[in-house]
Structures are given as structure tokens and as C-alpha cells.
Amino acid sequence: MSWSWLIILLATYPWLFAADLLSDWTAHWGFNVFISGAAIVVPCSRLRRWQAVLFSGCVGFLFEARRPIPDGTLALALIAIAIFLTSNKPLLRNAPRLLRASLIVNFTATTIWFCATAFTLGQLSFNPLGAFLPQLLLQLITSALVSLILFWPLSLIQNSAMDYMNTPPANETP
Amino acid sequence: MDKNRQGAKASYVAFFVFVALWILAPSFVRMGTREAFVEFQAPALHLVAKGRDLARFWELKSKSSEELAAASRDLARINAALELKVRTLEDIRQENIRLRELARYTAPREFLTIVARVASRDSSSWWHRIILRKGRSDGIRPGCPVVFSDRVIGKVSLVHLNTCEVDLVTSPNFRCTAYLEGDEQGRIVLVSGLPANSLGTARAKIAVIPTDYVAPAGQSAKVVTTGMGGVFPAGLTIGTLDSNIRTTQEGNFKEGTLQPSRNLFSLQEVSVLVPIHPAAGEILLEKRYEDFQ
Amino acid sequence: MRDLNDLKVLPSTRIERLRLILVFWIFSSGFIYVAAGLLVRQWLQSGDLKEQSDSQSRRIILKPPARGRIHDRNGYVLVDNRVRWSVKADLSELQPEFQTEYRKLLAAERARETGQIDREKIQDSARLNVLQRWLDKVWFVIDATSRNIKKNKIPVKSNPVDSPSERLVKIDDLRKHLRERRALPYTLVSDLAFPVADQSITTEEGVRAVARFVEQFPVDGPIRLDSDIIRTYPYGTLAAHVLGYVKDTDELPPNTLNDEKNELLQKLHYTGKKGAAGIEESYNEILCGLSGWELWTKTSAGYNKELLRKSDPTQGSFVVLSLDIEIQRAAEKALAQIKDSQGKVLPAAAVMLDVNTGEILALASQPTFNPNRLADRVTRTYFDEIETSGGWLNRAIQGLYPPGSTFKVITAIAGMRNKVIDWDDILECGPSYRVGGRDFPEHDPAGYGQVDLEKMLAVSCNVWNYQVGLGVGIEPLAAEARRFGLDTPLLQMPPSADNKNTTELPFPANRGLVVPDTAYKLRIGAGPWTGGDTANTAIGQGFLLTTPLHMACVAASVARGETRTTPTIIHDPGRDARHQGAESIGLNGLQLAALRSGLNRCVEEGTARSVMIPGLAFAAKTGTSEYFQKGQKAHLAWIIGYASADNPAVAFCVLVEGQLDTSTWGGKTAGPVARDMILAWAKKTPVSEVKPEVEEPAR
């Protein structure tokens, strides 16, 4: 199904949006609930490459639309990750590997997003130890926790959406 | 397997071509994409905010009649007091009009007040913005001041069709002039937002405080707008001056931290003051400056 | 050992063992050297080294304090400090814009096909265009009052033809900046509140311009707002010669650091300001305050690491001048109205001082300068402008002129004290008087006939003075002039830090005062003294040279019936009215009364009658002397006197340097200035209440 990526995006969107709203709550303390990275892992395991790329790009843009990141940074980073994942499907062969991938991808995407934000706001130029690094560390821990906790329900939803769309399951054998 | 690998190579090439194209793409393409995604999210934001209002409505609806009776009694009292105040204010207004006519004084700025509800707060760290549920279609323009009763909330930075984003006073993109309470000479100081520290609350910096300024004893000095910059009306409270005032590196001035008014982060409703005649800053922001030339 | 050999790690052959031993010893000795060095460093030199490392790892940063204020006698602030807001462009952030503009210009140039393309020139104009666009935007915001916007009256695009210079980016400035300070931001508007140096805008308008920029100009982007403190002279040119101005210096005011202990430390400092003229210079020590300092440890890369100790800068003390801003303003306004036939202001000076205390109420000199324009970067053109107009010279103190007929007061006193003439003696005065075979003329060709002291002072009769002067002789006449202090420099003693109210100050010295006598003429090699020289001296001509301030002091002394007045520019409410070296004038009551009455008649019916003030009698003596200006004869207009006539409270002197083509007369030219000063004084002190005491300072 050529439109399955969009359907999965719509299925994923409430999660992204909920994370956004949750971030509103936590913005006061200066950290973000970031799951955009974790959200692309399961679709990457089953979708075809171009679909995964479109899906990841949209997830990235949805996150960065209202944020001070250089345009496209996160979206392009997610696309690059999606290309890598879809080319190395064995990495996503079973549940533990998917969880591992989700952790790593979310971690990487958080780092990219955070550094890009800091760069835009001119935070990198002064006092990296004072505000930047602790904040990054905090953010990374949060994102790892979030991807651990939310990965399972998210993957369930995405998988069921893909089952509904008759997307072939992931190729078990390399 | 081989086929997959080859495909991967091609995708990487395509990806880099796309990245290059994206970097070279004119800014309106990027802005357009960004706008598209903002508008994609707008209905969801509206929905959530409406939902919140609904929840509030049901919360109120579930109050017992005793509670309502007590509230209405209190309201009636407040109403009476306010009624009286309105009368006196009307007198003052008439007197004001009379004096203005006498002095042939033209009001420096006239505003349309647009009341807007807060849809959400923008959530990136260090970035202090709120999103309002009114936008271009309601006549809001970038650069308009946003206030809540007599307090400054911030300034509209971006306007979308049905939503707009407001830079709070603690945002690094916010800057205005102010007077400090207790400075009889009425010298202006500079208020500008600060990037927040990790886990710290948002703050703003007050710079160019004269070295001979002494804050009133026993209380934190109020920081109010000057009304000189043509954006904010005079006399609005921006916040209070933190007691910790230090001398700057050069020793020419002092600087301190602005404690924004407490409810800056829990606002439900604000007013956007849209000037009838746009200020120069708005013209610059809206990129209509070139038209002026 | 055997085990090791078994392992075959150690070399087995003899030659290899020798090598090993050699290497062993080389390494051992190296190690011993290092260890010994360490011991020496750690134990023996540790004290010295610690000190050295402290001094290398610490630095002191010195910060200039704000200078003290200068007030007038009523507490008005004559010199203050203010925040200066400037707009600067970050050149590195503008680099992409420069590039885009450069490519655009280059393409346009290529399209024109004009052969040789000067890339450097295009680069320059690209930068210029970009900066000019930003400057236009800055001005767009500064100019945009709501009224202007409503009327759509904002000039937006500057063009080189009719835009004022402050709205244009100057290519030479830009080139110089790029050459010398590329890493620093380029200043677009150096003073946002007063962007136009010549144009007088009110402080509030200036603040509004700043506020508009702050609130309306986009925060992000390459344009920054900067602020610092500069000296400001709220009244512009008013009393500029007295106040002086400030200039940049690397020598900061003293600080509280123990210099000996911190001798080794590296010291950095910001550029400070020091007084360059007038009170700013002479009271620099009092006004400058104490520099602040900070003791920092530094990183190996040279950045500041940790602040160990610090001391904030202390603002300098204030100085209260004896000037009265109203009188000063009246004097300067009146002086500015004296112009030659081409409408150029004439060089002139005016002084008014308190008769009793000697406190100077007004001290004006024209042409003048605006210290605000010198407080920061002084433009070469403005400096030259002042230079060519002669504006640096404080004519009231430094200007040396023959006093002309105003000197006749002293001739008369000398005559009476030397018993050559008495107050009621009448001399026959014809149209000229012959001395040594030469006719010395009267200024009225008809002559004045029978003239007594009073009439002489009223009509300024020359012949009377020739006769009296010759009768007295040059030595007693010169002695009389010296008795009135005409050879003594005034306002010369520098103040000291512990005695801030020392009354005199080292204004540029009024050196070159001349009270001539026979010895003087011989000394300058002009030959022996003649009777003609005496006659000339008697009417204030010849070799005599004095300053307007001296003549004002003479008027004050006469008003008090004394010989000396010590002028001062510092206000002190408790100042006693004793004057250094003053003695009684040495005339009897009748003589003094006649002298004063003659000065009164000068205003009532004499040479100063054109400036008579109805209802306010004052005493005056006018003078019109000749001097040589660039080898040509020109006239000087003088008037000295005191007010009021019956109850002298203020004394004054006005001098105007006439031009060749104008008719300059004491009463007509200098008189109005004196009148305006007296009126300004009288306005503050109603005549009925004129008392000899100083007014209570209203601070």
C-alpha cells in the first residue's frame, strides 16, 4: 500500500502530540519529552525504504515546526537514520533488537536536536559546562526513559496499523 | 541482499542530493514547509484547548448549589464595588478628554484590544513562548504587545492563520525599556530575556541600571514600562527587580535579574494590543519595509 | 639472573651487554638530574616560585570610575554623566550578506561590460550598501514616531546627495575600521540619544529614540545595542571655557591597591577619561574618583577564571562653582549678538563677579566650543574649526589687551594719592595736548574745556589724563597699577586633594601681563622712556597689557574701596570677604565719593548712557582702545563697572575685539552685554533687596 506511511503517521501523531503536550508541562523546568526518534523504528522495520523516509521526514518536521532549530535538521537526521535502518533490517529482527534500536535512535536524535537548538540560540558559544552539558545529560536520560516506557505501546499501535494496512511483516531472515 | 545493498547506496546518494538541495533551497520553501506543519498542528492545538475549556466548564457545572450561592453573593459584592469604581473612572475619563482637548494632545498610540486564550506553551527548552488561539485572521500582527490586566506578558513574534506565537518577557528575543521603582530621576533601564539555566526558572536581565540607583528598602522594586518605545503603553508592570544587583564588568552600570510576575507561566487568557497605526518595528518585522521604500 | 637469562630477554653477546649498560647509565643520569631538579624546585625555591606563579596566574583589571558632577552656585548641574547608547553592526555576522551583495554587484558590473573590473572597489561598495541598508533601517525606527508614521512622513532611503552625514555610512571610516579593527563591531550610530551632534534635541526626545530602537528593532540579527557612560554638558556651550572638556587617557585615577605588593601582576585597564581644560582639568584630582579593581586568576589560555577580590570604582566628588547659570547665560547670549558686518561673531569676553567675596558669577569667552562634541571621539574638522576661530582661548582670563580708557580710573586714583590733583580741581582740556613735540589728541576734536574728575570719568577725557599722568610720573603710576594687582596673575593656585575648597585654580596662566615702567622699556630694548609713553600709559594705551578679569577685579575693588579682589570660581557660602593683599584704596571720603559719582555719571550722561537701565543705577567706565591685529590697527571696546551704584554687589567687565571695518565703541558695543548681565543679576536679586551678602545657596 503506497499510502500506508501516511496512515501510520496519523496513527503515530496522537503520540507525538501527547508528547508535545507533556513537553508543555515540563517546559517550565526546561526539558522536553522527545519520542520522535523512537517513533520511526517500528515503521522502518516493516515499511519500504521510500515510505520510511517520507514517514521519518514528516515526524521530524512535525517536531521542529515550532521550534528554533535550523530548518530541516531533525527531519534530515531522521531520514538518514531511516535509510540506514531500512538498509540494515537484520538490526531490527526481533523485539529486543527493536527496543535497542529505539533507544539508540532516540538518543541520537535527541542529541542532534538539542545541539541544533543550542547552536541556534547561541548557547554553545559560551559556558558549555554551566548550562549546556547538564541540560543535555538530563535531556538524554529523559529521552532514554521515555523511549523505554513508551516504545511498547507505540510499537503495538504502529504494528496493528501496519497489519491493518496489510503491510508485509519484517523479513526474519537476513 | 545485494539488491538491497545497492538500493541503500542509491538512497544515500539521493539523501545527500536532497540535503544539498535543501540547504540551497530558497528560504520561502523552508518557511513554507514549516508553516504547513504548523497549520497541520493548529486544529489539534485548538481541539486540546477547547477540551480544556470544556473540562473547566464541567468542573464548574459540578459545583453544589451552596457553593454557587456563596460565589454569587461574593460576586454581587464585588460587582457593587466595581460599579462605584466605574463611575469614578468615567469622571476621570471625561476630565482626561477635556484636558486633552485643551492641550490639543493627540493620543500617541491607539490600540485595538484582542482577547485571546492561550492554546499551548511552546516546549523547547530555553525558549519561552506561548501560543494563542487567535491569528492573522483575527487581525493580530507580529510585534504587537501582549498584556494581561496591567502586566506585560510579551510580544507577538510569529503569526499564523489561526494561531500566533508570543515571546514571553523571559524570551531572549524580548527587549524593552523600563523604569525602576524608586528612581526619582526616571532613567531608563533595559529589560531583555535570558536563556534559562538547566532546571532553572525563566528570567530576564535588567541592564544599564545607574550605579547610584538604590532599590527601595524592604521590598523588591517594581519594573514598569516607559511607554516611550512606541510598543508598550506606559506604566505596565513587567515584574520585580531581584534584590541581587551587581555591578557590571566595566563598572559603569549595575545589572539585576527580573522576576516575572508569577502567573506568567500559568496564564489562560491574555490581551493582544494591536496598534491602529503599525509601529516601525512591525513594518520591519513584516518585511513590509521594502514596500515603504 | 639465570632465570632472566633463560628467558632470553637480556642480550647474550658481550657487545649487546655493553650497549645495555651504556643505555642504563644514560637513563640513570637523566633520571637523577630530573629528580635533583625536582628536589631543588620543591624545597629550595618553592617560596619564590609560588610568588612567581601567583603573579603569572593572576591579573588585575582596573576600571575607571564615573567622574564627579559640577554644579553652579544654585545647584544646577553643569556637568553630568549620562548613558550613551550606540548601535553597532557585527561584521562577521554580516559576512553572508556582504557576499550576496558582492555577487550581485559583480554580475551587474559584468553585464555592463566595461572591461577592467575593480574587484576591491566592488567589495567595498558591497559592504557599504549592506551597512547603509541597515543604517537606513535603524533610522527608520529612530525617526518613526507614531505621528510620522500616520502621515507617512518617514524618510527611508538615504542618498548621498541630500542626506545628512550621520545617516550615511562613510566609506573611509569603513575602510579604516576594516583595516584596523576588523574583529570589532562597526559603529553605525555612535550616540543614539543624540545622533546629530549639532542639532539640539531635548533629552526626552533622545531617550525616546533609544526606547524606540530598543523596543522595535529586531533583537536577533547583526545589529546590536551597546551602552557606556560619557560626560555630558547639559547646557552645551554654556561656560565651556570654565568647565573645559575631557579626553581619553590610559592613566586611570588612583586606586586602593597596594602597588608594591602587586607590582609583578599583569594589569589591564579600560580607557578612562581625564580633564583636558578648565575645571575638568584643574580639578581632575577631585572629580576623577577612585578606580575600581578586580583581582582575577587566569587560565593558561589567558581568559579570566575566578574573581578573587574586587573593589568597585568610586565616583568622583562634586565641585560647586560660583557661576550663576542665569547670569552666565545672559552674558553669552548678549555676546553672541555682537557680530561684524559679515555676520560673524566677534571675539569677546565678559566677566561678572561678586564684589564682596570675589566669586565669579559669569565668565564668558567668545568664540567658544561645545564640550559635548569633544567628550567622545573628536572629529578633526571640529577641532580645526575651533582652532581657526580661536575658540580654545579663554579671552576673559588669557586674552591680553591694552585696557584703554578703563585704566583712567587708576590714573585718577594715582593723581589724587600723589597729590597731583584733588577731587574738585579743574583742568583746562583742549582738543589735544603736546608732549615731547607730539600732539596727543582728544577723542572729541572740539575738546572738553574745563574738566574735573567727575566729568573726566563721564566723558572719558584724554587730555585730563595726559596732564595728570605726566604730573604723577611713570613710576608712581606703574606702582598704582601694581597696587591694584595688574601685574599679578589671577586664579593660579592649584587645589589640593585635602583642601578641596582652595579657591584658586590653574587656568591656563594669564602670563604676559605688562605694567610698563622705564625698566620695562629698557628690558625689551625699546629705548629710553619718554613723556609720550607716560601719556599713553595714562590713558591705558602703549605697553599696558591686562585681562578682562583683572579689570573686573579693579571695578570690584573700587566698589569696595579697596585695592585688590581675589577672584575665585569655587562657591563657598561661608567665604570671608578678605582679599589677598588688599588694602584701603587710600583716598579720603570726598575723593572716593567723587570717583564713584563720576562712574555713575558715565552711565547717566556720559559714554555709557546708551545702556542706562531705568530704575537701576549702576556705575561704569567705558573704554575704546587701539591694538594691532596682524599688523593692522583695530579697536577694542571695553566696559567695566559695578551695580548697583549705591550698594555695589556685582562688578563686571566686558571686552569686545573689534574688526577693522566696524565702528566699535566701548559704550555702544560692550555696553549691552554689561546691561544684560546686570538685568539677569537684578532679576534674581530685586534691587530693593540688593544686599552685599552672598545669596543663600539653594541646593
Structure commentary:
The complex is a heterotrimer of chains A (174), B (293) and C (699). Chain A contains seven helices and no strands. With 174 residues, chain A is an all-alpha fold. Chain A has one domain (4-164). The radius of gyration of chain A is 16 Å and the shape is globular. The mean pLDDT of chain A is 82. With 293 residues, chain B is of the alpha+beta class. Chain B folds into three domains: 2-57, no CATH class; 63-106; 110-293, Beta Barrel (Thrombin, subunit H), CATH 2.40.10.340. Chain B has helices spanning 2-24, 27-61, 65-103, 280-285, 289-292, and strands at residues 111-121, 129-132, 145-148, 151-159, 164-168, 175-180, 189-193, 204-210, 222-225, 237-241, 246-247, 253-260, 269-275. In chain B, the strands form two sheets. Chain B has a six-stranded antiparallel barrel. Chain B is globular. Chain C has 699 residues and is α+β, with helices and mostly antiparallel strands. Chain C is elongated and about 135 Å long. The N and C termini of chain C lie far apart (100 Å). In chain C, 37% of the residues lie in helices and 18% in strands. Chain C contains 22 helices and 20 strands. Chains in contact: A-B, B-C. The B-C interface holds B 106, 108-109, 143, 172-177, 187-188, 190, 192, 207-208, 210-212, 226, 228-232, 247, 249-253, 275, 277-285, 289, 292-293 and C 63-66, 83, 137, 140-141, 143-147, 149-150, 154, 156-157, 207-208, 210-220, 225, 227-229, 270, 292, 312-313, 315.
Tally of helical runs of chain A: 7
Straight-line N-to-C gap of chain C: 100 Å
The most extensive contact between chains is: A-B, 42 and 42 residues
User: What oligomeric state do the depicted chains represent?
Assistant: heterotrimer
What kind of sheet is the major sheet of chain C? 5 strands, mixed
Helix and strand string of chain A, N-terminal first?
Answer: HHHHHHH
Radius of gyration of chain C: 36 Å
What general outline of chain C do the C-alpha atoms trace? elongated
The global form of chain A is globular
Helix content range of chain C: 25-40%
What's the pLDDT, averaged over the residues of chain A?
82
Fraction in beta strands of chain A: under 5%
Largest sheet of chain A: none
Overall number of strands of chain A: 0
Number of domains of chain A: 1
Mean pLDDT of chain C: 81
Helix content of chain A: over 70%
**What CATH architecture of the largest domain in chain C do you see?**
3-Layer(aba) Sandwich
Structural class of chain A: mainly alpha
CATH class of the largest domain in chain C: Alpha Beta
Low-pLDDT stretches of chain C: 494-504, 689-699
